[in-house]
């Protein structure tokens, strides 16, 4: 709208009236004809002359049939779906079209100095009905040349005048066409902020009239858009990538969302930003980078699996494009099983977990694959001392569909053969993984993607055994808009993990051993933005598990091994969820949700029951129950609360709190200190109950200096029930009655996490510190099922102090330096504390479980990154990374164990990388 300060506009207002009774005598039919043609027909039939700009009516088509209808009725219908209003000067038979705005036939109260009684009465009537007067304003003059023209949203409706209107839309990446999640949209000069969801959708309430909207997100060029609000409407944007941000190596969530979001304990790592962080053998590894964030660690160097906030490794749900990946690592955790050039990012939830996820107690690692380039063929690759990687992005339909394909493989055998250890001369270690993703965007309301992934490891450290394990998954995802306020995401996936051992030794003991777990999931999530106060998430998910607990069969006709096959396990798991994000004010945001989880173990199979009040063993078996195929063996489940809240003290300073509880129906069976590739997964059944737990968290979050610096401190407390441990010397694999070897007890964990980041500049990086404790208790009336007299003791991964420092310095545009320093308290260990003789034999007496600790861990890694020249017209852009892992040559113990030689007990330690490990990697991109 504009301020009516000239005589012409005032004259129009005083003389104009709306057409109400003028009928158009001829019958008129419009069948998808241009609006301009329809207006010209109206001119001819009605005798009224229309005034408008061609740009206002171009590319607009109309439909309708009218028979002697009034001109106002025809215009109302023809212009209903446009941003056009109309004003009539009946005395001159002229009709003026207005874009977005209205010409008013009355002046707003106070526009002139004179006070009119009728005007006062009208003003009082508006106040009584809570109707704001029409808004007249000046559009501020832009300083310098505008980059984008002002955008007009909606059209004025005199019967629906409001002080605020709703603006919604979708934000897409201009290069790839994919949605941009976690992008902040803010009204400049106010506290009104909205953040896009995973489909790039947003909704924000904006004052009527002129506003300046700013957008900001990591890796996306920040923009300012002038928006003039006349009514509710949509604004879709395609934003460019911020190329200068891609040079940064900071693991950075969105610059504003860390403060504005209501979720606690969330982190985001972009694969591109991890390229300069020095890691072992020059391999990019976002899961290894995750360990440098507070609250995330592992049991030791080279250990498979992550421990999040005092939880076990099996308490993490790891997803690759919505499908579960059971072992996302290669070669005992030294390398990740994810191609760094096809991986977009990983979102980590260690506090507030989104409602659509469940089945784990500690965390969710939601790994996303890139969408391929829809504009041109592009690719990226690397050649290192151990692996070679390649990824290609292939457009299929410009701006609509693409394929990205990635493959990587290892050639590590030469390293094992070059080591000064004869026992490793015949060893081998190799792996490969491949991924294919198809993405198609039908329109702004619908897109689909499908992912296929496979990885395999083969290794033999001894000459008689060949180990192998593999991951295979498929997933599809359809994101669609069901209406102006509702979006839906339908996902389906299948995951398969298996391992095997081929033994070929001396004698007649050759065998082949296999294990497999398979799951299929269907999930549907809906989001409805009811208004500016409420945003609902709701839906359902269902899973079907099929587990082969293990089988062994003789290899060759001369083998004496007996064939054993444990009965297959099956189960279904489901959930219904509903949540509401409630905006109580500009400062207070609350998320309330409930998720009902359900699990049923299914036949066919047999289950034992045991005498109550006695330990579980062969002598206390009461009965054996047989179940038919599909018959329910046992059910578990219950409600899960998901509650979180955020209060903004200022736009860059907030406090957050959360509480959630969860069920876990799946367990790993291992009596190793750390998880290994040949650990098995076990479903809950009649004798093994699901793990349960809850977590509460509270934190402060602050950004400084225009989001250049980010600081947070967060505390948490967690309790767990029915966590698993095992009796000393337990036989877990190929055991039909494994429940006799299992103990279930309680756990608790608590800690404080501190994070300080510098997100921009030639010198950037982050410092994280975690103080945490992880304790477990296994109590029972029976000594055989009790550990440490039923008292709490430190878990195998309890490390009270954990410090990580990542620093990067860009000397020039081509040369940069990076550093990674880690310090951790040594993990717990059980030591022998004495010897005794019994029946003329020597025995060792051990301490309480995990009473002592191995030496503290620390490591320094350094790297130099050399970029190629930055000429635009090159076949490929390249850079070289030179890194030294463990520069100080620290002999960090991986484990400490004890042997008896000549009647004496000796302590020995094993280490993974006890010397500096240099590497050089060539990277290229085209």
Automatic annotation (TrEMBL):
Pfam families: CarbopepD_reg_2 (PF13715), Plug (PF07715), TonB_dep_Rec_b-barrel (PF00593)
UniProt key word Transmembrane: yes
Annotated spans, Disordered: 129-152
Keywords tagged on the record: Cell outer membrane, Membrane, Receptor, TonB box, Transmembrane, Transmembrane beta strand, Transport
Transmembrane regions: none
All copies of domain TonB-dependent receptor plug, residue ranges: 282-359
Subcellular location: Cell outer membrane
Membrane topology summary: Multi-pass membrane protein
Residue span, TonB-dependent receptor-like beta-barrel domain: 434-886
Membrane as UniProt keyword: yes
Record family assignment: Belongs to the TonB-dependent receptor family.
Protein name: TonB-dependent receptor
